[in-house]
């Protein structure tokens, strides 16, 4: 009998947590769909979320405007989104799932590549310009603000004049491949810290590491 009532209360608590918007988080990894983009620098957002899925043992499923997966951590529901809209329309997918799941702006984290940071450098910010990044431009347009959390993963800028597009759509070099596994592991820690400790503590602990 005790087990019966315990199971009822446990299910009720889980449902109430899921309905509480402050206990739900949306992590959006930016990238382009298709095998030809899978191992490119521009797809680091997808790559980080694939690592998060491994760490928390969940799968992505194809849904409206993207692939969706989720996991729970200490009473919080974390929804991970890989938009299928291609980089230039990332904002459309983010806004759709933000509204559908009723997730507050402060509980959203966008993972993006950044050529202004050395390879593997992590920098978390609560606001800022789009820096010419087309994915961030579209997100800014749909959210109508530059004040949203973003996790910038440095990919370096080892390219010549007019070669930026080729560089970000290019694959990791041998040196990068040797260290990216550790950087991805570190990135999963960033996600957990954002959800459990908040954005300010996460910035203090992980920025420029």
Which properties best describe this structure?
7 strands; about 210 residues; single chain; 7 helices; alpha/beta; disordered N terminus; seven-stranded mixed beta sheet; globular
Class by helix and strand content? alpha/beta
Placed side by side, the strands forming the largest sheet appear as 2-3-4-1-5-7-6
Distance between the amino and carboxyl termini? 52 Å
**Radius of gyration from CA coordinates:** 18 Å
Largest sheet report: 7 strands, mixed
Please outline the helices and strands.
Layout: H1 2-19, E1 24-29, H2 44-56, E2 61-63, E3 66-73, E4 76-83, H3 90-100, E5 108-114, E6 122-125, H4 134-143, E7 149-154, H5 164-168, H6 174-197, H7 199-206
Parallel strand pairs: 1-4, 1-5, 5-7
Antiparallel strand pairs: 2-3, 3-4, 6-7
Question: Could you characterize the architecture of this molecule?
Answer:
It is a single chain. By secondary structure, this protein is of the alpha/beta class. 43% of the residues lie in helices and 20% in strands. It contains 7 helices and 7 strands; from the N terminus they run H-E-H-E-E-E-H-E-E-H-E-H-H-H. The protein has helices spanning 2-19, 44-56, 90-100, 134-143, 164-168, 174-197, 199-206; strands spanning 24-29, 61-63, 66-73, 76-83, 108-114, 122-125, 149-154. A 7-stranded mixed beta sheet has the order 2-3-4-1-5-7-6. Strand 3 (66-73) and strand 4 (76-83) form a beta hairpin. Helix 6 runs antiparallel to helix 7. It is globular. The N and C termini lie far apart (52 Å).
């Amino acid at each position: 009998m005790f087990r019966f009532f315990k199971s009822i209360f446990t299910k009720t608590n889980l449902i109430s947590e899921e309905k509480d918007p402050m206990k739900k988080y949306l992590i959006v990894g930016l990238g382009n769909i298709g095998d030809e983009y899978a191992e490119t620098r521009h797809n680091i957002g997808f790559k980080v979320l694939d690592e998060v899925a491994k760490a928390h043992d969940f799968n992505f499923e194809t849904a409206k405007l993207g692939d969706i997966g989720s996991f729970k951590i200490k009473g919080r529901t974390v929804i991970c989104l890989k938009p299928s809209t291609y980089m230039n329309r990332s904002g459309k997918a983010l806004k759709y799932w933000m509204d559908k799941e009723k997730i507050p702006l402060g509980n959203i984290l966008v993972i993006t590549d950044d050529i202004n940071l050395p390879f593997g450098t992590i920098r978390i910010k609560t606001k800022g310009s789009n820096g010419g990044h087309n994915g961030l431009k579209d997100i800014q347009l749909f959210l109508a603000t530059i004040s949203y959390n973003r996790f910038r993963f440095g990919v370096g800028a080892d390219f010549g004049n007019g070669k930026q597009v080729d560089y970000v759509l290019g694959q990791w070099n041998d040196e990068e491949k040797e260290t990216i596994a550790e950087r991805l592991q570190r990135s999963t820690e960033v996600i957990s810290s954002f959800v459990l400790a908040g954005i300010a503590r996460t910035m203090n602990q992980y920025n420029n590491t």
